[in-house]
Design brief:
By secondary structure, this protein is of the alpha/beta class. About 45% of the residues lie in helices and about 15% in strands. The strands form 4 sheets. It has an 8-stranded mixed beta sheet with strand order 14-13-11-9-8-7-22-23, with no helix packed on it. A 7-stranded mixed beta sheet has the order 15-16-17-18-19-20-21. A 5-stranded mixed β-barrel has the order 1-2-3-5-4. Strand 8 and strand 9 form a beta hairpin. Helix 1 runs parallel beside helix 11 and helix 14 packs antiparallel against helix 15. It is globular, with a radius of gyration of 30 Å.
Length: about 775
């Protein structure tokens, strides 16, 4: 391929990513016309980019079309699939499977033939093993996730992993094993590793570093790596594949020198053998996206290093980027892709055209300068991708990178190479284990000294841009040292800038979080932070609250409406990982922590915003748990918010004796159930905005059809966390009547009337 086509190829692949993602009307027809026109030119420079763009766009369109149709949600499907991965958590087993056959159990349903990859949960499951074929009945839902500000994008992760539906394995009929696992070099290697008498941590890290088995690392391992900024060392990267290729190349060139002393420099076969070794190692490691990316980059790097009709450094960079996007278009959504290519681009910028270092001192200087220049750029990329910053990373990586690249990875790979000589293999892995313990000690010390920092959401982008500018200031040649120092000191002031999300006195920020079939409302004034309810806890033990904030948050009050699991499920997590000044709950409700009672008439004021309980009465013994719910009224300026928990219509009618003034925002009772939001309440309060906190595809069909129509007749803007994700609005003085949803309808806000979405009952 002519080297001049590298940049057009990469740009065309990026264009295909954008077109396939946004899918404008007439896209397929336009791509077909472009192919026809390019074919008539009969020029590779025109045809190749058009083919690349078309291929990437079509691949993404097909991937989107293969997701589970909404009409098959919660339907029984008979599936035959091969198990790709297994993770066990107590009674719960999580599977990723490759679908080979799928059909609905009931007649007259939509086909599910396009499904290729599923993520399933199974309770009290049989002993699934990777590589086996199974037949089971499943219930699925389209890939989705909670949509909350600055939280983990589970829906995006499912998309990147190519998972087209999630769900669970039915206990009846009982799953049947159709075929045992076939031969697999990777599984045999992991089984061999399990049979060795290695320290558990050494075994986990060896599996991850040499075989790409990151799933073997424990949560504590990942937390330490994240906090120290060394997560990049624990994936199969260009470093690992490059070391294998370099070792094979050196050995092969040594053999060539002995075999043909006069012509060994011209021998081509050592380079081909090194390329084959890179491909083989990536294949053994599972050929997952990081390994695939590393393989492509290593192959292009070998081509550049060979010097035989090879592209230049920047041409190779563009060529590798284009090839990776062609092979795996979804990698455009993987932060690791941009981390890798940004690091390589900076290395080219820094060192291209410079003389080769001499001696140990020269190479040591290169290593230190490279790590110090890479540190702010990598920190910016991690900050944008994960909203976290590891202050210890620059210093830690000065030691960790050479330790891993020069000792740990070579020792791990040498142990596999000498597996047929157990004493020597054991010696390599024994040394590996001791080095791992030393590295862990260093990382723990660094994290204790400089712990992980999670900046406020409004600081993430400015801080990342500042780090990029600092990198360029010190990487670009020709800049005066004084300019670099002054500019860097000025940029260091960015973390001190005030947050744009802070409220003024008299203002209230209300956020109804998307926590599935449950409720969690966050209330913030200038200096006060409270929660109404704590969200659900699922059968697996997961509480959605865990995905909203890192540990260590402070809350002035947590009001638990009542003790149902969909409202109080996150209370144990709040008590264990966060600082809560006081928990409040109705008399007689047990939420697992000491509480102060909520009683009608109790009131307090913070920053000019007034909070008042309208319910329950002092005596609640004859009330059901739902009807004991704390009913909270919050007044900010001329705006009023009402949250009624799960109280029923009888209690609602009683509340109208206390308040009949129209409200600005009503968090609809009982997730939109027909037992709440009665006609009298809706007509009397006429809320400008009504918000349903309900789960997507929930089995109760919340919000109820009649309740939705009732609110629509009053002209209320309707919002549902099931459709809109988290809903945020500001009340009080000098604020606009604006609502922000995390999952907005394309091109407009959600809600009813005007800019509002005409929300109907679930399909």
């Amino acid at each position: 391929m002519p080297f001049g086509l590298a940049i057009p190829l990469a740009l065309a692949a990026l264009g295909g990513v954008l077109l396939g993602h946004h899918a404008p009307p007439g896209l397929v027809e336009a791509l077909g016309l472009a192919l026809l026109l390019a074919g008539t030119r009969r020029r590779l420079a025109v045809l190749l980019p058009v083919v690349a763009m078309t291929g990437v766009a079509i691949a993404l369109l097909l991937a989107r079309g293969a997701e589970l149709p909404a009409g098959l949600t919660r339907e029984d499907l008979a599936v035959e699939a091969r198990v790709l991965s297994v993770a066990r958590e107590a009674r719960l087993t999580r599977l990723v499977v490759a679908v080979e056959a799928c059909r609905p159990v009931a007649d007259g349903r939509l086909p599910c033939d396009d499904l290729r990859r599923l993520r399933l949960s199974a309770f009290a499951a049989p002993a699934f093993r990777p590589g086996e074929r199974w037949a089971f009945t499943v219930r699925l839902r389209p890939p989705t996730g909670f949509a909350n500000p600055h939280a983990f994008d589970y829906r995006g992760w499912l998309w990147r992993e190519g998972i087209q539906a999630t769900g669970y394995v039915r206990g009846e009929p009982v799953p049947r094993r159709l075929e045992a696992a076939g031969p697999s070099l990777r599984r045999r290697a992991l089984a061999h590793l399990d049979a060795r008498a290695l320290d558990p941590r050494a075994s986990r890290w060896l599996a991850a570093l040499s075989l790409g088995a990151g799933e073997r690392l424990q949560q504590a391992d990942w937390e330490l790596l994240n906090a120290s900024g060394t997560t990049h060392l624990m994936v199969i990267s260009g470093l690992h594949v490059g070391l294998v290729a370099a070792f094979v190349l050196l050995m092969a060139r040594g053999v060539a020198r002995l075999a043909t002393p006069g012509r060994w420099r011209l021998a081509v076969w050592p380079w081909w053998l090194a390329g084959g070794a890179a491909v083989g190692y990536a294949w053994v490691a599972g050929l997952e996206p990081p390994a695939l990316r590393a393989m492509v980059m290593a192959l292009v790097g070998l081509w550049v290093a060979s010097g035989r009709h090879a592209p230049g450094a920047w041409q190779a960079w563009w060529l590798a980027l284009g090839l990776v996007l062609l092979l795996d278009p979804r990698s455009a959504w993987r932060p690791g892709l941009w981390l890798s290519f940004a690091a390589v681009a900076l290395l080219i910028l820094i060192w291209q055209g410079r003389p080769r270092p001499r001696g140990v001192r020269g190479w040591l200087g290169v290593l230190i300068r490279t790590q110090l220049l890479l540190a702010p750029l990598m920190a910016a990329a991690v900050l944008l991708a994960f909203a976290r910053l590891a202050p210890a990373a620059p210093l830690v990586n000065l030691v960790a990178v050479p330790l891993v690249s020069s000792l740990l990875v070579p020792l791990g790979l040498l142990g596999w190479l000498l597996a047929w000589l157990p004493p020597l293999s054991h010696l390599c892995w024994w040394l590996f284990g001791h080095l791992v313990e030393g590295l862990v000690w260093l990382l723990e010390l660094a994290v204790a000294w400089l712990p992980l920092w999670l900046p406020g959401p409004s600081l993430v982008t400015p801080l990342a841009l500042a780090l990029v500018v600092v990198t360029l200031l010190w990487a670009l040649p020709g800049l005066a040292r004084s300019l670099r120092l002054v500019a860097s000191l000025l940029l260091a002031l960015v973390p001190l800038t005030p947050s744009s999300e802070s409220s003024l006195p008299g203002q209230l920020r209300v956020r109804v979080h998307d926590v599935g079939q449950g409720q969690l409302v966050e209330l913030r004034t200038a200096g006060y932070r409270a929660l109404y309810d704590a969200g659900p806890r699922f059968a697996s033990g997961f509480a959605p609250l865990a995905s909203l904030w890192p540990p260590g948050q402070r809350f002035d009050a947590v009001i638990v409406s009542h003790d149902d699991l969909d409202h109080a499920g996150g209370v144990p997590l709040l008590a264990a990982e966060h600082q809560v000044a006081r928990f409040i709950a109705p008399p007689g409700e047990r939420v697992g922590v000491p509480v102060a009672p909520c009683r009608a008439g109790d009131a307090w004021e913070r920053d000019g915003v007034r909070f008042r309980f309208l319910w329950p009465p002092p005596e609640t013994g004859e009330l059901s748990s739902n009807d004991r719910s704390c009913v909270l009224e919050v007044t900010a300026g001329d705006h009023r918010l009402l949250i009624t928990g799960d109280v029923g219509r009888a209690v609602e009618r009683t509340l109208l004796l206390e308040t009949r003034t129209p409200v600005t925002v009503l968090v609809a009772g009982h997730h939109g159930s027909r037992t709440s939001s009665g006609p009298q309440l809706v007509q009397s309060l006429s809320p400008r905005h009504a918000i349903f906190s309900a789960g997507r595809d929930n089995p109760f069909d919340h919000p109820d059809d009649a309740v939705v129509r009732r609110f629509r007749r009053t002209g209320s803007c309707l919002w549902s966390t099931a459709h809109d994700g988290a809903v945020t609005l500001w009340l009080g003085e000098a604020v606009f009547d604006d609502v922000v949803s995390e999952r907005p309808v394309a091109g407009r806000r959600s809600g009813v009337g005007g800019d509002c979405l005409a929300l109907e009952s679930p399909e």
